[in-house]
Design brief:
The protein folds into three domains: about 210 residues, HUPs (Rossmann fold, 3-Layer(aba) Sandwich); about 100 residues, Orthogonal Bundle (Tyrosyl-Transfer RNA Synthetase); about 70 residues, RNA-binding S4 domain (Structural Genomics Hypothetical 15.5 Kd Protein In mrcA-pckA Intergenic Region, Chain A). About 35% of the residues are buried. It is elongated. The strands form four sheets. The chain has a five-stranded parallel β-sheet, with helices on both faces. The chain is of the alpha/beta class. It contains 20 helices and 14 strands.
Length: about 425
């Protein structure tokens, strides 16, 4: 399958500045930029990086930009009010965090990693106005959707700094055109206005053509909302912000209506493999084979195969699909990153464990749970005769105690 055919099949083409998508089938050099207002990418960003990986695998050269300069200003796109400026030190730390994630996402692939602060830090204000500002029409800029929306009667307005953001991004494209031979910028459709800025600049300054390609924003078909958030907020690629277990669980729980689209966008399954998975989904929808495959594939891309295996094993054990005795140390480490941990002395009373672990509100309630056989140790319903935990119950240093269907804690015996 040619690149243009694959991107069309995966629904990763929305807007282009070239009329014929087969233009993509002749490999050249592209760039993808990342905002560094946070120290981690989200799964919304991941969709664009999956597009970048596909271009790379079809022979395109990749230049991946971290916005050390642009993040000092803040992208006004998609915002109805002015961003708070972040300290330089925070942006520098964020750039480092994003760069490490980019390297992991492109592990084993050749690419250029650049930071636009490296060329902006020495540009003088007058030089920028002469070289860049002079080439842009105010009429054109005021018609950009994200600027026009901020200038309406009921809007919060826009500062000159944020107004100038797309000129800065246009300069990035021109710089990368000259230094790295970049002829195309890619990104989400919400970046389309910014992405267009470099094209006329390159045409006016170099007399040559450059292009842009946007992909549709991923939408949750069940809700109609932008995909990528849970009840706890954004789903981050950094495990310090979204644990690997929670990351895996997010994909396990995606809606049935959209799972095929998510498999196309967020995995590298080919058409034959995807059809097979969806046939299994149709036969056994309650088993969620499509969601399970999606969760494993995406977690592997972001966190690696070993972490994906541990997240899968931990998930299977918590939901009764795998025996805790079959888990290894890494699997229990994944559980420990997610579940509450209670420390206790050997031979501790189960009643005290339930109260200390907030599985019961009082000893009286804890005793009732035990009498009703509602307590499980290491996945097994405990007999009435068992009232304490000792070191024989330990499994890789922990005892798993569950009350009811979903309330689970880990007990560490000192």
């Amino acid at each position: 399958m040619k690149l243009s055919e694959e991107l069309a099949w995966r629904n990763q083409i929305k807007d282009t500045t070239f009329a014929d998508i087969t233009w993509l089938d002749d490999p050249k050099t592209f760039y993808l930029g990342s905002d560094c207002s946070s120290d981690s990418l989200t799964i919304g960003n991941l969709a664009a990086f999956m597009l970048a990986r596909r271009l790379k695998k079809h022979g395109w050269k990749a230049v991946l930009l971290v916005g050390g300069a642009t993040s000092l200003i803040g992208d006004p796109g998609g915002k109805d009010s002015e961003r708070d400026l972040k300290p330089r030190e925070e942006i520098q730390a964020n750039v480092k965090g994003i760069a490490e994630q980019v390297k992991r996402l492109f592990n084993g692939m050749d690419f250029e990693l650049v930071d636009n602060y490296d060329w902006f830090k020495d540009i003088g204000y007058l030089d920028f106005l002469r070289e860049v500002g002079k080439t842009f029409s105010m009429t054109e800029l005021l018609q950009r959707d994200f600027i026009a929306s901020r200038l309406g009667e009921d809007s919060g307005g826009i500062s000159y700094a944020e107004f100038s953001y797309n000129l800065i991004q246009g300069y990035d494209f021109w710089h990368l055109f000259k230094k790295h031979g970049v002829v195309m910028q890619i990104g989400g459709s919400d970046q389309w206005g910014n992405m267009l800025s470099g094209i006329p600049l390159i045409r006016k300054k170099e007399g040559k053509e450059a292009h842009a390609l946007s992909m549709p924003l991923v939408i949750n078909k069940a809700t109609g909302a932008k995909f990528g958030k849970s009840e706890g907020g954004a789903i981050w690629l950094a495990k310090t912000k979204t644990s690997i277990y929670r990351f895996y669980q997010f994909w396990i729980n995606v809606d049935d209506e959209g799972v095929e689209d998510y498999l196309k966008i967020y995995t590298e399954l080919n058409e034959t493999e995807l059809k097979k998975v969806m046939a299994e989904q149709k036969q056994n929808p309650g088993q969620r084979p499509a969601q399970k495959r999606l969760a494993f594939e995406v977690t592997t891309i972001v966190h690696g195969t070993d972490k994906a295996e541990s997240a899968k094993n931990a998930s299977d054990a918590l939901f009764g699909l795998k025996d805790y005795k079959d888990l290894n140390t890494a699997d229990f480490e994944e559980l420990a990153s997610e579940l509450p941990i209670v420390s206790a002395e050997p031979n501790v009373e189960l009643v005290d464990v339930l109260v200390d672990g907030k599985l019961a509100s009082s000893k009286t309630e804890a005793k009732r749970f035990l009498e009703d056989s509602a307590v499980y140790v290491n996945g097994s319903q405990i007999p009435m005769s068992k009232s304490t935990l000792d070191k024989s119950d330990l499994n890789h240093g922990f005892v798993v105690v569950r009350r009811g269907k979903n309330e689970t804690i880990l007990v560490h015996l000192k």
